[in-house]
Amino acid sequence: MRVEMNTPPPGAAALIQEVVASFMEGWNRHDMAQHTAAFAEDADFVDVAGLLMHGRREIADEQGKRHAGRFRESVVKTLKTSTRFLRPDVAVVHHSWEMTGDAGPDGKGLPPRRGIFTFVMSCHGSRWTFDAVHNTNTA
User: Fold this and answer.
1) How many CB atoms lie within 10 A of CB 9?
2) What is the pLDDT of residue 3?
3) Cα 70 to the center of its chain, rounded Å
4) Which of 36, 48, 54, 69 is most buried, by CB atoms within 10 Å?
5) What's the CA gap between 134 and 94, in Å, rounded?
6) Number of C-alpha atoms within 13 angstroms, CB side, residue 83?
7) How many domains does the chain have?
8) CATH number for 75
C-alpha cells in the first residue's frame, strides 16, 4: 500500500483502510447497510456502467437491487490500495479489485473481472466518509 502524506492526523491512513475494508466486506456479505454506511448522506457515485447516483439512500437502493440479482453470488477481493492526502482531512484513495461470481445482465455468468475505485474521502471528527466515488472496469 502506497500512502502519501500531507500531514494527516495520526492513524488516519489506518482508519481509511478500515472504512474501505468494511465497504468491501459489506459487498461480500451482500449487506447493503454495511456496504453503503461510509457514504456521506450527499455522496455521488458513478458505477462501472456510468450511472450517476446521488446520496446514500439512492446508492443503497440501487446496489440492493443489483445484489438481489446479478451480484447475489459475487465476491470481490482487494488487489491494491493507495492513499494520498490532499489535506489532513481529505484523501483520494485508489482501490483495485477483482470480482468473481457476477451473473451478468443476462444471468449467464461472466468471467472474473477487475476494476478500480477512486474514493474522495473526508474526515468529520474521527469518521472518514466517501464523498465522491467512481468505479471503473479495467479487465
Assistant:
1) 12
2) 56
3) 18
4) 36
5) 10
6) 25
7) 1
8) 3.10.450.50
Per-residue pLDDT, 139 = 79
Q: How many residues are given for the chain?
A: 139
Q: Which helix (H) or strand (E) holds 100?
A: strand 90-100
**For the residues 89-111, what does the mean pLDDT come to?**
96
Q: Which three cell numbers stand for residue 72?
A: 447475489
Q: State the average pLDDT for the chain.
A: 94
pLDDT tens digits, residue range 54-77?
999 999 999 999 999 999 999 999
End-to-end CA distance of the chain: give it in Å, rounded.
21
The three grid cell numbers given for residue 33, joined into one nine-digit string: 447497510
Find cell 489506518 and name the residue: 14
The pLDDT assigned to 5 comes to: 54
